[in-house]
């Protein structure tokens, strides 16, 4: 897998996080040295508790705190309502306007956010958060324990139902303390609350039906920036929130986000100076590395490409059929054909180097053997030229990947009937409406590995259409959710991953590198192992 120097920083962060104590000092030194060579950051210093990118060097030029940062992403939010957000694509835009109980660092580790600290009880049946003092929502409402409780209860009844399922009741003994009483293991909850389930909206914004309807189109959060203009699927304009608790996170006075689905449109806007940073398709990385005046940030990512199966559909409920589908895909070829050599083939849900990765799962467990796969399908009673309604986000990269998968599976007698859909509607169509047999798309990395396993492979979450699972997987995912240190939890996560691979629950294809191109004036942006970029401390030099 080809990686830039920034990618090596991400990988080193993972190694440092997973290494034993005797090596931690040496690894930390190495990470710092590499980071110092590649990162130019804001002149502001990170304050205690801040999640802005750490200042490892003095900026070559001072940050222009009056500047407007212009960013383009391929899709806009499915909704601004945290309880209705249904896609991983929502968070890169949502995190400008919303804050969460817990934040992530670039190495995908949970760190303080609105909650300054948290602690599990000795028996693991309660998780207590201590909140920051004086935090306010954009409408002036205090962000206190009651506001957090209202949000968590509402999110748990909405799109985050499965992820917040361990919570039984919530106590608020004082305005800065939130105690989650758990009915099942909640070891993944600190990580879960860094993502959509932990997004906090002003209680006034969902106080009644009219307010809730408005929230769908205009956020009322407590984030770094406040939305002043929103044109659905076109444009978002935000301004610095004066009362935000972490001033170091606000590198710009204003942020403009253009929604441009077309790769070439984003590329041309950056080249012509209309934008400061864009996300790149794999096909664009080599080109942008050669353009004078621009820089590329490419890093290890938990994001993965898979063929997700609705296992409640005919034949997909059979293990041998799913195994055959895994044998009908040439993963290494897909990295070359669809990813231009960036990324790594994989048949499990975590990349090598991450603590959830299981070395016992061989990449050759499902070797590319279309003839054998065809025989297995016939033995399972699958008809010739079996056709599957295949949902694909209507974006260049996914269409290219889907066509390559279609061509490969055809050799095994599987006919994928590709159905391109509006990217924003992908999740509602496949997860909510449960329309389509399979989905070929990205699955965004989750802050905690147990969160991902729970989302995809237990019965309740929206991300598991049809609700298919097995008793053993449910048992192993529950173990992975138990509180404990990383080493203890890693063993449980890896055991669950092995069972999921053996059952061939979906067709994992590859892990990709997240890549962004930006003007040389951009400062403070770095690679995020979690795969979801954040812009804390990001700005433009004068």
Explain what the structure shows.
- By secondary structure, the protein is an alpha+beta fold.
- The chain has three domains: 5-76 and 233-301 and 514-540, 3-Layer(aba) Sandwich (D-Maltodextrin-Binding Protein, domain 2), CATH 3.40.190.10; 98-206, Alpha-Beta Complex (Dipeptide-binding Protein, domain 1); 304-511, Dipeptide-binding Protein, domain 3.
- Helix content is 30%, strand content 21%.
- It has 16 helices and 23 strands.
- It has helices at residues 5-18, 21-38, 91-97, 145-156, 189-192, 209-215, 263-271, 285-289, 319-327, 331-339, 370-379, 396-410, 426-432, 449-457, 471-480, 486-502; strands at 68-73, 99-100, 102-104, 110-112, 115-120, 126-131, 167-174, 177-182, 199-200, 225-231, 235-240, 254-259, 277-279, 294-299, 304-309, 344-345, 386-393, 414-421, 438-443, 507-511, 514-519, 522-523, 539-540.
- A seven-stranded mixed sheet has the order 10-11-12-1-13-21-14, sandwiched between helices. A six-stranded mixed sheet has the order 16-20-15-19-17-18, with helices on both faces. It has a four-stranded antiparallel sheet with strand order 5-6-8-7, covered by helices on one side.
- Helix 14 (449-457) runs parallel beside helix 16 (486-502).
- Mean pLDDT is 87; it is low at 1-59.
